[in-house]
Write a structure and sequence with these properties.
- The radius of gyration is 18 Å and the shape is elongated.
- The strands form 4 sheets. A 5-stranded mixed β-sheet has the order 5-12-11-8-9. The chain has a 3-stranded antiparallel β-sheet with strand order 6-7-10, with no helix packed on it.
- About 10% of the residues lie in helices and about 40% in strands.
- It contains 3 helices and 12 strands.
- The chain has a domain of about 80 residues: Sandwich (Immunoglobulin-like).
- The model has no long low-confidence stretch (mean pLDDT about 85).
- A hairpin with a 2-residue loop joins β3 and β4.
- By secondary structure, the chain is mainly β.
């Protein structure tokens, strides 16, 4: 009966059980409020543009808290044609790797997914002068600041 009620109300069953059936406020399109989530079970990368109840694999996910830039990555960026090319130092091992890089700008979230054993490099279109975030399985979410400040 609970599943039928969830369909009628248009909410997740878990929200009914938690007693939280409040709708979110309409999204005003401010990408600066982007929040990232990682499912600890399947490794899905999810994001929202504000407060949201995000669920994956039957669990409610909490937004990742971004820490300010950490120099241990030795992130470097250079302009190559119409892109910015980034390299960083990270072991990229199965249990310890960079999972994604995301550039958040105005109305765009540009996400680059990484995998273990992959080369520690990526590129972004040069028109994306936004805020750069990196997520490491060992260090968490890292706020690297403005892309413009990193490019040589």
């Amino acid at each position: 009966m609970l599943a039928d009620l969830a369909v009628i109300l248009g909410v997740d069953t878990r929200r009914i059980l938690e007693g939280e059936i409040r709708p979110n406020r309409p999204d005003n399109g401010n990408m600066a409020r982007t929040r990232f989530y990682i499912c600890p079970v399947c490794g899905n990368i999810l994001f929202s543009t504000g407060n949201a109840g995000i669920f994956c694999c039957g669990r409610k996910l909490e937004p990742l808290k971004a820490e300010k830039a950490d120099c241990t990555l030795n992130l470097s960026a250079r302009s190559v044609d119409t892109d910015y090319f980034f390299t960083f130092e990270h072991p990229m091992e199965k249990e310890n790797y960079m999972m994604f890089a995301a550039c958040v700008k105005g109305d765009i979230v540009y996400l680059v997914r990484f995998y273990p054993q992959q080369s520690p490099q990526f590129s972004l279109p040069a028109r994306l002068i936004g805020r750069l975030y990196l997520y490491s399985t060992s260090m968490g979410l890292i706020d690297r600041g403005s892309v413009k400040d990193m490019v040589k």
